[in-house]
Structure formats: structure tokens, C-alpha cells
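quick q for whoever's on today - can somebody do inverse folding on this one?? i tried earlier but teh output was garbage lol. C-alpha cells:
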């Protein structure tokens, strides 16, 4: 959905003619009670079931009208009192104007811009993710009511951050499929609301599937064929999308540009009809990434004619085309017998049903649920406070030598604030952002605590010259402490731009080292980035007292960074991705999709689940200003897995097929005591990893649960964590079949280890 231009010129023409969103109070999309001629249609009657209303509406449409509804700028049907609708809006981490469905102006000059997703994921706080979704949907509904936005938002991005160079890794919840899946479900719930079948807004999980390469070494996303085994698909790439559909009940899934195993995802019935619709029971519509149908015809040459491309997409299960392709070519495809009008009707059932669930056929927006939301509900003080809190929770303390942090307002009365991101604003909101309510830069945030001496040191993150070094070095020599705000921005990592390396750009490292050498007081390195950065030099340098990763911390990022640096907030974030050393890249082409190591090819594997080599910082790393100790108070040592009937043949390699186990309520309850033994209140993230019995299928370890708990200084909290056995203690064999290994499973929480034995049984018993 994509903010950069795709290869097809047709999309450019298409976008030029889009209608401008007015920003004024919205008239009804359809079924206007003031329109006596049209308001009486059965599809306008709320007393009738949605299925009947949809059937009535589609039955009244001509073929010409139908095909004009297959694209994102769907045409109106004036004779039925239905207006045109722009489906494409974005809300990755706040209402965005990247899509043409949303426009900031007048009563809606901006919206709350939360931290980029990779930063929010580092909080490991699922209730925070849902709360952000609720705020974003409040603001989205308010803007819809004011005529400034649609109700269909193509967010979140739940692809796996498979390769550290990926320019869009910043948009994702990180490298772990369980983390990504939980983020997907909770954020979607926040967006869509909890009013049963009624939708507050319609979310969309993207980009299905195995999409995690944009432009690397001459290979781009428009031509890439991701070769993925059944095993990797089941235990890595599918996991967040399944969670999004099954648990989050998302209203839409977007297929991606790339091919998977030789078939474009938007033309693959196995992915769209069989997996998403039949197996996961998507209650919603499937949309293409923008111009994807044109891409698989024009760029991938998957079909010989445009009519075949249109037919293949519709028959595969695509319901809506972001782009003009289906509107232009579907009628001719029907004339040639390649696809039927009934196939088009099936696609429209899915899209119109979502519009009905959103209340778009219920008359006046002001008379509907959420109809009272307006300008007062956008950028409200409570929403902006949540943006600051989200940034505080997502910031990760990577290094704190000698407890140099937090800084003291008494001891550190002057702070040298240095670096290309030291006074950054737009950089803080990452990509797929809108116009924020306001910015607080790092310089401004630190200035609230102490006198600042500001020197950029580098003109920009490229840092190609050293002319500004002298001023920065001089400032550090005068100040009581030095804060270097370095890192990346969208010129280095972005959509359509994968990184060439993992190092700080240009001469940034040189600046950091020279400033640290000259600094009179402690030197703190703050990094803004979406992806990992190899800062081994700073980790090893004793003159660099502390390292903080802020990700892209949103509109209030500077305030949150300062709150962390001065100890008003206690850092509790954990890295949602592995930070690899630069030399890792020479062993892993971005085009190799394998997650597991291949020793015969010196391929080291990917992510903490399968890679055992050296790291700069591991997945889940993050320090605090206090110390937490956790002990297991109660947990089972053995669990019997009940089977359906007599499945004597289901044990393969001492592992039971999940489909043969009675999984419904089969879970392990861990009772943990978390004690804050320090002098500062803080939040602690419990990460529970499972190490399955040895075998060729299994990861080295796998995140199976996480919980955020706030513990006051010198106090203790009891936490219960439930681990669903079939979902989280299973592994996937080479055929893509999920199985539960029998034997000893190690559950690791920090340095604490607990063994639980799983055994097949006719009746399930859990022994304490």
C-alpha cells in the first residue's frame, strides 16, 4: 500500500483522478433518509439481516456498475443513491495520509502519531497495543464523520522481520512469529472494536505472504519469487496472519507483490481461497497491494493477456484491487469466458458486507454508533499522553556501564546534545505516518531537564563530512554530560530501500568515538532506527557509558527519551529483533528464505530461533534501572496429552499431530513471583521461552508467552502465565505438519528453568 510508485504507469494516472476528500461534515454514503427515492430499498433496512441486504444490493447492479466496485476508488451508483468510496486509508501507528482516503485540513490538521510499530512492539505490552488501536480508531471515526477519512484502514503490517537489512522491518512487530501474531490480534481488536459483527473501522493485515524484501542487490519486490518450504510457511510466515484472522477477526487481508514458489500471491487460490478463506475463515475481503495485479501481468509476465490476469486474481479469491486493473479488464475477461459474473458477485459480497458492518448503509453517520466523535476527539490530551507513554515503554536500554544512567538534574546541569537526530522531528515518526499533533524533539525534551549545548556534528544521517565535528567535540568538553542522538532515517531504510550494511552511516561512528574521548562527563549514545545497528564499537568502548535504542519513537519521542535519560521513567523495553554483527550479512543473501541453518552451505540461519552465532545484542535484551528476580512458585512437571479416539499411528518421531490431540483447554499454568529488589519502581517483561526435546524440526528455542508486570520497589507480584500446549509447545515437521514433541520441554524465564514432561495419554492429567 504502498507509498512509493510501482512500475505500472496506470497507477499514476489512476491516482491523479482521485476525488479530493473535503474535510466537511459527511453526508450519508448511502441510504440517505432525505432521499425518498432511494432510502426505501431493502438493502437500506437495518431490520433485515446483512446477508439479505447485500444480496438485494448486488442483485440491483449492472455488470458495468459491478466492475467499477472492484477497485479502491470505487465508483458511485447514483441511481441507487450510493456515493463513490475510496477504500485506501492507512493507520499503521496513527491515522496517516499516505493513502488517498485520508486528508488533513480544516478541523483535522493532524492526528496522534504513535511510535513506529517496531518500537511499540519492544514494550511487549499487549494491552498497550490494543489501547493504541482504540485511540487510532477513535480518531479515524472522528475524521470519517467529518468527511476527512474512510473507514477501511490497510494496517497493520505483520510480516516477519526476517532479514536485518529490510527497509520495512520498522513497520513490523519484529522477528518472532508469536510476538507478531499477538501484536496483530490485539492491535486489530483495538481498531475494529468489540461490538460483535459491527465494525468501528475495518483493519487489514498485510502483506500475505513471505514478503520481506524490497530492493536488494538488483532484486526487487515486483520480481522476487520467494521460495519457501511448507515447514517455514507453517511455523514462521503464516503464524501472524493466522492469528490476525482467527484471533483478531480482522476484516481484510492484503496479498503481496512477490511470488511464492512461482505463483503471485494475488493469483494463488491455495493462499487466498484455501488458506485465508477456507481454513482460517476470514470474515471480510482480500485486497491486493497497490497495482499488484498489474505487476504480475506487466512485470512478472505471469499471464499472456490482461484478461487472464484479471480472471486469475478474481478466481484465486481477490475481492478488491488497489489499482485500476480489474475495473479496466474484468468485463472483457467475462466476455471471453475466463471468469463469470457470479465470480464478481462473490467478490462484491465480501466487500459490501464489510461496508454494511461499518454502518455505511445505515443512513446518517451522526445517528450511528461513534457518530458523536469529532474534532475534539483527535489529538486530545489523553491521546497525546498515550503516545508519550508508548514511547517510554518501547525505548530499550542496551548498555548502562557503572549505572551512569539515569542522569541527575543536580549533577548534570549542562548537557551537550549532539548528532544528526538530536533535533529531529519527522525522523521520529518513521514511515506510513500522518501529520502529528505536535513534535517534541530530543533537544527540546532534554532542555526541559537541563541547560543544553546543541551541536549537530553531522549535517544529516549520511554524515559524509566532518566539518561540524569540531563544534560537537568542543561542546562535549564543556558539558556535564553528553547525549549523542545518532542512527538512521528514511533515507537509509524505507519502503523500496533495503540497507546495504548494518553499520552507522558515513562518519557517524567516528564522530561518536571522538566526542566520547573529549566528553567531560558521561557519554550516552541514543540510537534512532527501525532495524538493528552494529554498534559493537560503542558496546566495547568504556568511554561510552550507556546506549539507548529509541526506534522511531513517534511525535513525543524527544520527551520520552528525556524522561528515560533522567529517570522519570524506568526503561522496560526489550529488543523485538536480533542485532547481528556486520559480518553476518556475508553469509545470508536476502533472497534465501530459509530460517533454519544449513551447515553444509555455511548458512547460519535466521533470528534467535535458528541462529546460534555471535550477536551484538540478542532478541529480548533490555536493561532497567532496578533489578528483578523471578522464581517459579507453581508449575506442572508432567502433562498428559489426550488424543481423539485411538490414534496409534499418530506418533511420528515421538511427536503427536496437533490435529489428533484434544487441544481445546490443554494449557500449562505457570505461577511466577516477580520481586523488584532495587530502589526504583519499574515494569518487568517476563519472556517465557520453550526449548523442545532435541530433534531436526525444532527451533533452538521459541517464545511461547510474555507478560508485562509493574512492580514497585522492594515489593513482589504473583503472575500467572498460561501456555496453550498445542499452539505454543508444538513444532512443525518438514512436511509442514504441526506436531507436539513428547518428552522433556524446558521452559526458560531469564535464568530460571523449569522442565515439564509431555506424554501421550487417553485422558489428560496435569501433575503439579
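ok took a stab at it. sequence:
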Amino acid at each position: 500500500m504502498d507509498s512509493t510508485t510501482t512500475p505500472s504507469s496506470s497507477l499514476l494516472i489512476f491516482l491523479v483522478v482521485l476525488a479530493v476528500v473535503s474535510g466537511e461534515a459527511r453526508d450519508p454514503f448511502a441510504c440517505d433518509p432525505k432521499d425518498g427515492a432511494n432510502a426505501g430499498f431493502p438493502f437500506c433496512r437495518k431490520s433485515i439481516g446483512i446477508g439479505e441486504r447485500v444480496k438485494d444490493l448486488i442483485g440491483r447492479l449492472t455488470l458495468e456498475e459491478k466492475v467499477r466496485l472492484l477497485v479502491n476508488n470505487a465508483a458511485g451508483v447514483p441511481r441507487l443513491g450510493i456515493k463513490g468510496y475510496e477504500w485506501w486509508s492507512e493507520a499503521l501507528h496513527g491515522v496517516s495520509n499516505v493513502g488517498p482516503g485520508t486528508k488533513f485540513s480544516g478541523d483535522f490538521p493532524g492526528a496522534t502519531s504513535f511510535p513506529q510499530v517496531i518500537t511499540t512492539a519492544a514494550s511487549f505490552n499487549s494491552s498497550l497495543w490494543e489501547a493504541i488501536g482504540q485511540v487510532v480508531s477513535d480518531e479515524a471515526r472522528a475524521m470519517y464523520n467529518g468527511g476527512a477519512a474512510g473507514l477501511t484502514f490497510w494496517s497493520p503490517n505483520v510480516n516477519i522481520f526476517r532479514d536485518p537489512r529490510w527497509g520495512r522491518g520498522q513497520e513490523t512487530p519484529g522477528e518472532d512469529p508469536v510476538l507478531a501474531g499477538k501484536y496483530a490480534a490485539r492491535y486489530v481488536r483495538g481498531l475494529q472494536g468489540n461490538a460483535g459483527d459491527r465494525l468501528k473501522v475495518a483493519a487489514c493485515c498485510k502483506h500475505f505472504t513471505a514478503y520481506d524484501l524490497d530492493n536488494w542487490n538488483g532484486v526487487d519486490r515486483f520480481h522476487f519469487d520467494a521460495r519457501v518450504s511448507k515447514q517455514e510457511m507453517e511455523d514462521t510466515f503464516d503464524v501472524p496472519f493466522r492469528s490476525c484472522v482467527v484471533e483478531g477477526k480482522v476484516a481484510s487481508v492484503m496479498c503481496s507483490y512477490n511470488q511464492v514458489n512461482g505463483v503471485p500471491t494475488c493469483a494463488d487460490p491455495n493462499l487466498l481461497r484455501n488458506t485465508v478463506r477456507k481454513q482460517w475463515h476470514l470474515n471480510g475481503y482480500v485486497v491486493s497491494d497497490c497495482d499488484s495485479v498489474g505487476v504480475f501481468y506487466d512485470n512478472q509476465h505471469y499471464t499472456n493477456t490482461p484478461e487472464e490476469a484479471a480472471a486469475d486474481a478474481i478466481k484465486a479469491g481477490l475481492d478488491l484491487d488497489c489499482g485500476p486493473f480489474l475495473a479496466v479488464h474484468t468485463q472483457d475477461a467475462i466476455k471471453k469466458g475466463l471468469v463469470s459474473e457470479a465470480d464478481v458477485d462473490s467478490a462484491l459480497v465480501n466487500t459490501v458486507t464489510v461496508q454494511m458492518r461499518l454502518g455505511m448503509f445505515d443512513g446518517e453517520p451522526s445517528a450511528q454508533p461513534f457518530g458523536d466523535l469529532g474534532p475534539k476527539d483527535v489529538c486530545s490530551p489523553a491521546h497525546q499522553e498515550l503516545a508519550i507513554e508508548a514511547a517510554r515503554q518501547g525505548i530499550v536500554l542496551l548498555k548502562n556501564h557503572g549505572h551512569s544512567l539515569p542522569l541527575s538534574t543536580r549533577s548534570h546541569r549542562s548537557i551537550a546534545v549532539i548528532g544528526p537526530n538530536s533535533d529531529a522531528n519527522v525522523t521520529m515518526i518513521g514511515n506510513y505516518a500522518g501529520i502529528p499533533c505536535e513534535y517534541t524533539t530530543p533537544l527540546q525534551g532534554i532542555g526541559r531537564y537541563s541547560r543544553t549545548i546543541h551541536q549537530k556534528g553531522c549535517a544529516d544521517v549520511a554524515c559524509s563530512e566532518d566539518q561540524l565535528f569540531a563544534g560537537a567535540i568542543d561542546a562535549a568538553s564543556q558539558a556535564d554530560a553528553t547525549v549523542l542522538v545518532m542512527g538512521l532515517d528514511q533515507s537509509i531504510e524505507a519502503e523500496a530501500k533495503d540497507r546495504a550494511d548494518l553499520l552507522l552511516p558515513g562518519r557517524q561512528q567516528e564522530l561518536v568515538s571522538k566526542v566520547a574521548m573529549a566528553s567531560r562527563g558521561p557519554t550516552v549514545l541514543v540510537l534512532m532506527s527501525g532495524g538493528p545497528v552494529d554498534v559493537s564499537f560503542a558496546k566495547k568502548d568504556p568511554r561510552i557509558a550507556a546506549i539507548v535504542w529509541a526506534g522511531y519513537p513517534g511525535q513525543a519521542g524527544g520527551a520520552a527519551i528525556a524522561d528515560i535519560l533522567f529517570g522519570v521513567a524506568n526503561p522496560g523495553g526489550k529488543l523485538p529483533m536480533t542485532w547481528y554483527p556486520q559480518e553476518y550479512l556475508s553469509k545470508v543473501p536476502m533472497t534465501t528464505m530459509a530460517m533454519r541453518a544449513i551447515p553444509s552451505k555455511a548458512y547460519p540461519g535466521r533470528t534467535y530461533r535458528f541462529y546460534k552465532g555471535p550477536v551484538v545484542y540478542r532478541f529480548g535484551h533490555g536493561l532497567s534501572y532496578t533489578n528483578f528476580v523471578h522464581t517459579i512458585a507453581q508449575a506442572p512437571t508432567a502433562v498428559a496429552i489426550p488424543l481423539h479416539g485411538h490414534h496409534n499411528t499418530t506418533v511420528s518421531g515421538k511427536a503427536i499431530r496437533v490435529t489428533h490431540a484434544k487441544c481445546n483447554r490443554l494449557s500449562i499454568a505457570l505461577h511466577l513471583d516477580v520481586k523488584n529488589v532495587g530502589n526504583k519502581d519499574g515494569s518487568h517483561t517476563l519472556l517465557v521461552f520453550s526449548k523442545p526435546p532435541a530433534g531436526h524440526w525444532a527451533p533452538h528455542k521459541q517464545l511461547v508467552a510474555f507478560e508485562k508486570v509493574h512492580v514497585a520497589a522492594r515489593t513482589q507480584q504473583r503472575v500467572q502465565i498460561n501456555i496453550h500446549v498445542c499452539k505454543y509447545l508444538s513444532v512443525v515437521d518438514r512436511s509442514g505438519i504441526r506436531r507436539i514433541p513428547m518428552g522433556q520441554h524446558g521452559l526458560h524465564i531469564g535464568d530460571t528453568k523449569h522442565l515439564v514432561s509431555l506424554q501421550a495419554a487417553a485422558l489428560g492429567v496435569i501433575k503439579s
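fwiw Confidence is low (pLDDT under 50) at residues 3-23, 763-768. also The longest strand covers residues 667-676. so keep that in mind when u check it
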